[in-house]
Specification:
With 170 residues, the chain is of the alpha+beta class. It has a single domain, classed as Bacterial Protein-export protein SecB (Roll). It is built from 3 helices and 4 strands; from the N terminus they run αββββαα. Strands 1-4-3-2 form a 4-stranded antiparallel β-sheet. A hairpin with a 5-residue loop joins strand 3 and strand 4. It is elongated. One of its GO terms (molecular function) is unfolded protein binding. Homotetramer, a dimer of dimers. One homotetramer interacts with 1 SecA dimer. One of its GO terms (biological process) is protein tetramerization. This is Protein-export protein SecB. It comes from Halomonas icarae.
Length: 170
């Protein structure tokens, strides 16, 4: 009987080994591209700072190896003088990360790359933009948290309305 129980356990273990194990690990987080411009300095510093912030976010993901994905958040912040419309500064950042993901496929992988990974990366992007703007001589630009789950859901909804599948991976 004990042998039958052990064989049953071994049979289950063997069956589980056939399935890829679920793995999610951050391999590296890095700045892929960064830019800061203050085209109207030093004149912009000689007037009261009345900012109007324009923010653009985009995410992309690419499979770079077996179970290895690069996810990138592109953040563009353009701040103009609210009364004059002149650009105070333009800060652009591509914050990227390498993620080891195995055992997740299809829609679940798409969701992981389109929402979960950007949620991991965004705090790094916020800190980098804030630091960049501060080093440019401007008051800190504290970006509000972003709900990448909602952004992902909107992308999927738009794709469904257009009758296409919008995969996050490229």
């Amino acid at each position: 009987m004990a042998e039958e129980n052990n064989q049953g356990a071994d049979g289950q273990a063997a069956g589980q080994q056939d399935k890829p194990q679920l793995q999610f690990a951050v391999q590296r987080i890095y700045v892929k591209d960064i830019s800061f411009e203050a085209p109207n300095s030093p004149a912009v510093f000689q007037q009261p700072f009345k900012p109007k912030v324009g923010l653009n976010l985009d995410t992309t993901s690419t499979q770079v190896g077996d179970g290895l994905y690069e996810v990138t958040i592109k953040v563009t912040a353009q701040v103009t003088h609210s009364e004059e419309g002149t650009t105070s500064f333009l800060a652009e950042l591509e914050q990227a990360g390498l993620f080891r993901i195995t055992g997740i496929e299809g829609e679940q992988l798409d969701h992981t790359l389109g929402a979960f990974c950007p949620n991991v990366l965004f705090p790094y992007a916020r800190e980098c933009i804030d630091n960049l703007v501060n080093r440019g001589g401007f008051p800190p630009l504290m970006l509000s948290p972003v709900n990448f789950e909602a952004i992902y859901a909107r992308k999927k909804q738009r794709a469904a309305e257009q009758g296409q599948d919008a995969p996050a991976t490229q």
